[in-house]
Amino acid sequence: MTRVRTGLERLTGHPRPVGRDRVGLVTNPTGVLPDLTPSAPALLAAGVRVTALFGPEHGLRGAAQAGEGDAAPADPVTGLPVFDTYGRSGGDLDALVASAGVDALVFDMADVGARFYTDVWTMYDLMESAARLGLRFVVLDRPDPISGALAEGPQLDPAFASFVGRAPVAVRHGLTPGEIALLANRTIKARLDVVPLSGWRRERYFDATGLPWVMPSANMPTLDTAIAYPGTGLLEGTNAAEGRGTTRPFELAGAPYADGRLVPALADLGLPGVRFRETWFTPTFGRHAGAVVRGVQLHVTDRLAFRPVLTGVSMLHTLRVLYPGAFACDPFLDLLWGSDALRRALDAGRDPRGLVPDGGPEGAELLYG
């Protein structure tokens, strides 16, 4: 197996794309070399003039929960000032970036392969700021951990663009951060450079890269979590539990109103590459915190056959059919799905599984075979 070399590893050997620019590094705990050296000290050791750090949702240190940033004023490792981007966009984000006094922004964070994971949209918003401020923007590419061979689900309807989806990509998009940046830059027109991966092919999952897995956020502990997330993440737009507050977020799902019919109904669907085991869990925080929740654990038996988005949509439909008086969607589902089509189908009692196309990644400039 050929070990994948990330954009960070390649830039530390040849820092030419940033030259002597004052660099604002956009990163989190996933920004590491293969020996787990964080990107900020790695770039400083390579002679890159990193003068500021920018943190995304969950913060520079990854300690914050969903919907939170990081208020730490300085990085304890490098002493560099930290700028919290979460919740900022447009002119507010421009002012934050301008206050850092940098000439270039360098993005080094892992994605998880689902459109509604926000790290790449932090990248998108900062690319827009860089374009308005005349700054260089450099993406240090990293693999799509759930492979880049398959896209699943509809592309985003621009009318539903939000921080859980800015560009027209599928729910499971099959793209690297660098490929999303190139797609986005067709309209943003930033001074963009992508430092590509070497040794990565689209069919490779993260555990075939030779790279260490680092949790992208507090509720994304393992590759197994990331494999399930493009489907079970849709539960966040409903009143069911997606497993936050447990040791198996996004692999556990259920609701206090579920009963013994749920697992047999899901099993009868014959969904590819997955089995369902009945379980009970008590979330320590988040939706239904402190309540005993009856539901399922997803056991992915064949990740090449598994279709996470189809599975997630099927779970929502099954909950709607079995518990019509209890299960409910909310408008956030529209933002997760990228249109209101899924919510309208569920509310009307229609089978929404026909809304889940799959195929190869589309609409992007693919960097890897």
Automatic annotation (TrEMBL):
Residues 23-223 form the Peptidoglycan beta-N-acetylmuramidase NamZ N-terminal domain. InterPro entries: NamZ, NamZ_C, NamZ_N. Residues 228-354 form the Peptidoglycan beta-N-acetylmuramidase NamZ C-terminal domain. Coiled coil: none annotated. Residues 1-23 are annotated as: Disordered. Pfam families: NamZ_C (PF20732), NamZ_N (PF07075). It comes from the Bacteria. This is DUF1343 domain-containing protein. It comes from Microbispora corallina.
